[in-house]
């Protein structure tokens, strides 16, 4: 019996031992299987759940004016966040400093009370055992505000204690606000860019870097320190051809004239003749409140019937084909001419009668041009259009920035070709071109017949070094022969001296160009929609006429104050821009001769000695000071030198600020504890409290400048 019991016990123990052994082996086997078979996949899955590679945005390149001044740049702003579960941020530290932090935040942002900020922070710490990525304020702060925040209680502590985590967010800004806004372009929140920003987006945006980030509560990811982080590659700077000073002149001149004529919109382009570089481009549209803003790039993206500015292409065709000379004559009758069912009308009341070919174009006679074209090209319409095509007026310019609308120059046999297409096209109707396409054609006339492609960007730079340049591209070496060109330029000069643009004539420098006044068709409503006629006024030309340096076009759409002719509406804008260019172009001016007699020393104000000494040194003006060593001085011109005189400033006595400039006078009086108001400008000629009087702190003194 005892043996049977013993045997039974041993068997049971063995069974348990075997079971435990098998379970252990199964566990070990499963662990090995998980480790070596499923392990890589599970580790990758865990890694993906808790870690992720995040892109580090590079610094976007700047867009610069031709002289290097900023046009568009990225400015860093910061999200203000704090890790309320930072390892070193104990309850003792938090609750000891939170009142002071709340007070500082309330003073800085001013959107809620200190008590409200305290509750906000305390609740953020309590919620879900403390937020790891708590946003202190929804507004982005600039760098100066960030430095101020970093002096606040808690936030000024080391990161692992205070938990302050500012997150940089770059904002794109145009440094000159609305100047050339549509040409420079911009980038929206979705990353879609237009203008130069869009066309050179690949170069500007740079290459993103990578950093390892760890997932914390919710869907929040925060960067972690990693030696494997890839640094971003900053974007390339784009140097434009724009002259910001001339851009300012062009935009203001356009705005002023649009407002004066209550026009719908307008555009201006200023181009350098030889290179095709665009020095200024302005596009303004009237807003609902009557103001004007850059809302659309009309210069490159609005294709319209140009009107009389297109007549010069017709003139070149006539001259090139040998059909006319400038002395030939044509009868414009009473200014009205019926061709099929179409009346062609001149703007001159009663007509101009018999004119020479030169006068026809100088005075912009629609009847004269139409009659010439019908006489010489009727039945040979294809030769006229072929001649236009040979001048490249039918081809797009393929600009550096996107959005150009191709020109429309139809061909005989096309769907919309009619019996009146020939004379209508010759005077700028039934064709469609953009302002910049028209300017490029006229620029070729100014450039000896060579048509060049307009340039908006001249080089790319990286860290100040040029890595690519864009050279002038020739579209056609000659739009016509030299004899034709000389005659065309004579007529364009005559437009200003004797023709439709005589108001632009001046004795300082010569202008050549052509006015244009075209009726605008309003879709299916035609040219007289709802009984209302709308017009487009333009002027395109170049200057100086004898040696062209710049070409310019001005187009104003829908002037509505009963004045719509190109010479009156667009001409003054052209003239104002040309005057500014002429004024700043020193090579166009005769050097001033040195006067034979000596010039007296300039009158000098009294003030701070070191500043006055520096000015005299820079201007090579001799100084006599008789050994005085006071900080503040009076001055007196002595013919061929300036004399420094002692000026004594005594503490607690009202200082003598006579003959000083405003800056120095304010410095002395306010440092003495007085409140200052003033009138006039120039040097101080009077002070209401006499110098040497004892100062009463907070008393008011009035100074008069003249």
Question: Quick gist of this model?
Answer:
With 706 residues, the chain is of the alpha+beta class.
Radius of gyration: 39 Å
CATH class category name of the largest domain: Alpha Beta
> Beta-strand level of the residues, as a percent range?
15-25%
Report low-confidence residues grouped into runs of 5 or more.
none
Count the domains: 4
Distance between the termini: 135 Å
Give a count of the beta strands, DSSP E runs of length 2 or more.
Answer: 33
- CATH-wise, what's the superfamily of the largest domain? DD-peptidase/beta-lactamase superfamily
Give the helix level as a range of percent. Answer: 25-40%
InterPro entries: Beta-lactam/transpept, Beta-lactam/transpept-like, PASTA_dom, PBP_dimer_sf, PCN-bd_Tpept
Subcellular location: Membrane
GO molecular function: penicillin binding
Pfam family, one: Transpeptidase
């Amino acid at each position: 019996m005892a043996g049977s019991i013993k045997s039974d016990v041993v068997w049971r123990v063995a069974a348990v031992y075997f079971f435990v052994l098998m379970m252990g082996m199964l566990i070990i086997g499963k662990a090995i299987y998980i480790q070596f078979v499923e392990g890589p996949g599970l580790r990758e899955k865990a890694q993906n759940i808790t870690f992720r590679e995040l892109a580090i945005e590079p610094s976007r390149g700047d867009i610069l004016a031709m002289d290097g001044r900023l046009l568009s740049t990225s400015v860093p702003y910061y999200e203000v966040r704090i890790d309320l579960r930072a390892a070193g941020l104990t309850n003792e530290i938090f609750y000891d400093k939170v009142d002071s932090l709340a007070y500082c935040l309330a003073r800085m942002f001013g959107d809620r009370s200190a008590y409200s900020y305290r509750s906000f922070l305390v609740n953020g710490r309590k919620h879900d055992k403390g937020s790891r990525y708590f946003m202190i304020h929804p507004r982005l702060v600039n760098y100066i505000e960030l430095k101020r925040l970093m002096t606040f209680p808690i936030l000024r502590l080391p990161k692992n204690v205070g938990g302050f985590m500012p997150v940089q967010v770059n904002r794109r800004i145009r440094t000159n606000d609305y100047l050339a806004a549509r040409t420079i372009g911009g980038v929206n929140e979705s990353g879609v860019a237009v203008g130069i920003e869009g066309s050179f987006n690949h170069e500007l945006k740079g290459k993103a870097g990578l950093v390892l980030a760890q997932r914390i509560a919710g869907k929040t990811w925060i960067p972690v320190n990693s030696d494997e982080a890839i640094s971003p590659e900053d974007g390339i700077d784009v140097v434009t051809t724009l002259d910001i000073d001339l851009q300012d002149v062009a935009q203001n001149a356009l705005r002023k004239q649009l407002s004066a004529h209550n026009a719908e919109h307008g555009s201006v382009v200023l181009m350098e003749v030889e290179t095709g570089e665009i020095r200024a481009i302005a596009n303004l549209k009237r807003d609902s409140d009557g103001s004007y803003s850059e809302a659309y790039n009309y210069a490159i993206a609005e294709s319209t019937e140009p009107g009389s500015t297109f007549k010069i292409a017709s003139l070149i065709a006539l001259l090139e084909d040998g059909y006319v000379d400038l002395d030939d004559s044509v009868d414009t009758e009473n200014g009205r001419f019926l061709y099929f069912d179409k009346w062609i009308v001149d703007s001159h009341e009663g007509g101009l009668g018999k004119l020479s070919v030169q006068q026809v174009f100088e005075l912009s006679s629609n009847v004269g041009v139409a009659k010439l074209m019908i006489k010489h090209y009727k039945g040979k319409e294809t030769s006229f259009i072929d001649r236009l095509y040979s001048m490249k007026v039918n081809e797009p310019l393929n600009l550096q920035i996107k959005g150009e609308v191709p020109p429309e120059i139809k061909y005989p046999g096309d769907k919309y070709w009619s019996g009146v297409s020939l004379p209508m096209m010759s005077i700028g109707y039934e064709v469609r071109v953009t302002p910049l396409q028209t300017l490029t054609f006229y620029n070729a006339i100014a450039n000896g017949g060579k048509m060049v492609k307009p340039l908006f960007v001249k080089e790319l730079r990286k860290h100040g070094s040029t890595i690519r340049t864009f050279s002038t591209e020739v579209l056609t070496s000659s739009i016509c022969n030299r004899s034709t060109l000389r005659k065309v330029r004579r007529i364009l000069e005559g437009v200003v001296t004797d023709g439709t643009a005589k108001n632009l004539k001046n004795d300082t420098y010569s202008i050549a160009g052509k006015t244009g006044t075209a009726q605008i068709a309003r879709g299916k409503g035609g040219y007289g929609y709802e009984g209302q006629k709308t017009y487009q006024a333009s002027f395109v030309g170049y200057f100086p006429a004898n040696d062209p340096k710049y070409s310019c076009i001005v187009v104003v759409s829908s002037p509505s104050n009963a004045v719509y002719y190109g010479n009156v509406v667009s001409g003054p804008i052209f003239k104002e821009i040309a005057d500014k260019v002429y004024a700043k172009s020193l090579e166009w001016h005769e050097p001033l001769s040195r006067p034979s007699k000596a010039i007296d020393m300039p009158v000098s104000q009294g003030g701070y000695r070191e500043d006055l000494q520096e000015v005299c040194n820079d201007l090579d003006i001799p100084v006599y000071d008789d050994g005085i060593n006071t900080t503040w001085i009076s001055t007196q011109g002595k013919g061929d030198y300036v004399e420094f005189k002692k000026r004594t400033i005594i503490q607690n006595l009202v200082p003598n600020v006579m003959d000083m400039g405003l800056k120095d006078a304010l410095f002395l009086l306010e440092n003495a504890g007085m409140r200052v108001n003033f009138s006039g400008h120039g040097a101080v000629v009077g002070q209401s409290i006499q110098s040497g009087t004892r100062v009463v702190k907070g008393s008011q003194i009035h100074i008069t400048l003249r």
